[in-house]
Amino acid sequence: MTEKITAVSALNEQTLKTYPISSADDINAAMAAAKFAAAVWSQTTVKQRLKQLAQLESIIVVEMDSITEVIRAATGKVKTEVLLGEIYPVLALLRYYQQNAAHILAPCPVQTSPLSFPQASAMIERRAYGVAAIISPWNFPFQLTLSPLLTALISGNAVIFKMSELSLPVGELIMDLLARLALPEALVQQVIGLAVSGAQLIDARPDLVFFTGSVNAGRAVMARAAQHPIPVILELGGKDAMLVFADANLKRAAKAAMYGAFSNSGQVCVSVERCYVEAACYEAFVDLLKQAVAQVTASDVGRLTTVQQFAVIEAHYNDALAKGAQASAPLRLEGRYVQPVVLWNVSHDMLIMREETFGPLLPVMAFDAEQQAIDLANDSDFGLNASVWSQDINKAERIARQLQVGNWAVNDVIKNIGHAGLPFGGVKNSGFGRYHGAEGLRQFSYTVAGLTSRSRLNNEPNWFPYSDRRYLEMRGLIDLLFGSGSLYQRITRNWRALQVFRGYASLNLRQHGRNLWIFLRGQGS
Fold it and tell me: Which of 195, 126, 210, 196 is nearest to 160 (CA)?
């Protein structure tokens, strides 16, 4: 009997639909079909791929309300959060690649030495990996599936994606949207299942794995992929720091802290999970936070997508209070709602300052000096995003550049991740690899270096036979190119050894004399 997964609404606990779990045979068959589709798709130009994907933008805009309702049912998000965190980033990324992908992925000429490589041209081109396996999480199932999926397609890959078992209606939605485009058969396919299905997908040997999720799950994915081996891109958890200095606009910073910590009920990989405030304004800022959090309602933050996450939230809250922290309110779970809480008098020996909470708790800690703030922010196993708050922009940017993160913002939170032109990813336990921006698009392809010679010579000075004389001749060439002294001095001391290059060099001078002169001048002549 086929195993099944039943999707339940995060809004009202009602059954949405039952989905059959993909078997290992199903996954292997999907991979075989994807390999064939990838071979065809990779031969199309970037412009052709973009043309076939262009209609998706208008489809999403026209059906925005119905898309929003599907995502809300699967995640428990508020409507505005769906627009800002799920739909807008996909549209922005698709528009960015429509405008820039052809240039980003175009072959790139590389300068060659006209003496070492006469009548030769060099270039770097990019090739699609083949089949990209995308394993996505439950917190932003639309954006964190469709964004890497589109990036992979534009780079020339086929895609098989597996969503969290909590997000299957969103996967069905994505397949329905893509079915309206004139894409090759089996170019995009979905695998349905639990963690074991993700392992089976990797064992089916895709050419690239893109994973978004927790650190522990990321380790498992990486270990599985290493058995084959398959390259991986990992976008893992965060423990993002917010550094507030006394010269910041404190009212703006307090509002931002509310949004940064409690948006989507804290279920954001770049949530503000640690807030460090300069001692000179610490008490005043905590007061602002206490006033602000009292005004935040459940309709602002939304529900927990999975109630299982509350166990982590509760453990961090209780540990903090047991070790001396104070809280703005008791921790309460009502249905799937958790009332946001600000905690102060916290320290780094508390779980809430060291482990990812992924819930609506905001711990606030004081610092005395700039370097201490930097050290506290960097004292973490994670390194995804951070923000620095000061009206002295030069100071804020200087501090941000010392933070061990893959992304930073000055006087803003979370929004920098929505910039389609900026690559996104982390360091340390937050993963490696990037998506978004030009660098993100290139991550879904690999480089191939090419050299084309147009020489008509029957022989080359570096070809066999070798001899002591040939050694001296080559030594002279290297000294001419890289040795000390003026160009005249280098030619004079190596004149006899360089006679072997007369035919080689004369042809070079006739064809590339100006380039040769520029090259030699660049060697210190």
Answer: 210
Rounded distance, CA 333 to CA 314, Å? 10
Contact 363, 350 (CB under 8 A): yes
Tens-place pLDDT, residues 218-255:
999 999 999 999 999 999 999 999 999 999 999 999 99
- Tell me how many degrees the CA angle 467-473-477 measures, rounded to the nearest 5: 145
Question: Residue 510 pLDDT > 90, yes or no?
Answer: no
What is the maximum alpha-carbon separation in the chain?
A: 90
Q: Which of 239, 258, 359 is nearest to 304 (CA)?
A: 359
**Cα–Cα distance between 92 and 74 in angstroms, integer?**
23
- CB under 8 Å to 265, separation ≥6 — which residues? 76, 301, 302, 303, 304, 337, 338, 359, 360
Instruction: Indicate which residues carry an active-site annotation.
Output: 235, 269
143-154 and 88-104 are packed helices; what angle lies between their axes, rounded to 10 degrees?
20
Domain 21-106+118-236+439-448 identical in fold to domain 240-415: no
Q: How far is CA 510 from CA 152, 153, 250, 481, 505, in A?
A: 46, 46, 68, 19, 8
Question: Could you tell me the two tokens for 512?
Answer: 């590339």
Q: What is the dihedral angle through the alpha carbons of 78, 79, 84, 89, rounded to the nearest 10 degrees? A: 110
Q: Which of 186, 118, 111, 174 is nearest to 148 (CA)?
A: 174
As a whole number of Å, the CA-based R_g of the chain is 28
Side-chain-side CA neighbours of 451 within 13 Å: the count stands at 11
Q: Is the pTM of this model over 0.85?
A: yes
Picking from 371, 324, 316, the residue whose alpha carbon sits closest to that of residue 344 is 324
pLDDT in tens, 116-146: 787 899 999 999 999 999 999 999 999 999 9
In which region does residue 453 sit, left (phi positive, over 0), alpha (psi from -120 to 50) or beta (all else)?
Answer: beta
Can you tell me the distance from the alpha carbon of 97 to that of 85, in angstroms, rounded to the nearest whole number?
19
Q: What letter represents residue 15's amino acid? A: T
Residue 505 gets the label, from left (phi > 0), alpha (psi -120 to 50) or beta, of alpha
Give residue limits of the domains in the chain.
21-106+118-236+439-448, 240-415, 461-522
Q: Which DSSP string do the residues of 140-203 spell out, in sequence order? A: STTHHHHHHHHHHHHTT-EEEEE--TT-HHHHHHHHHHHHTS-PPTTSEEEE--SHHHHHHHHH
Domain 240-415 class in CATH: alpha beta
pLDDT in tens, 355-383: 999 999 999 999 999 999 999 999 999 99
The neighbour count for residue 238, using CB atoms within 10 Å, is 28
Cβ atoms of 348 and 376 within 8 Å: the answer is yes
Looking up tokens 């990992």, which residue turns up? 234
Q: CA-to-CA distance for 140 and 75, rounded, in angstroms?
A: 8
Structural fold of domain 21-106+118-236+439-448: Aldehyde Dehydrogenase; Chain A, domain 1 (3.40.605)
> Can you tell me which residue has the tokens 């396996």?
133
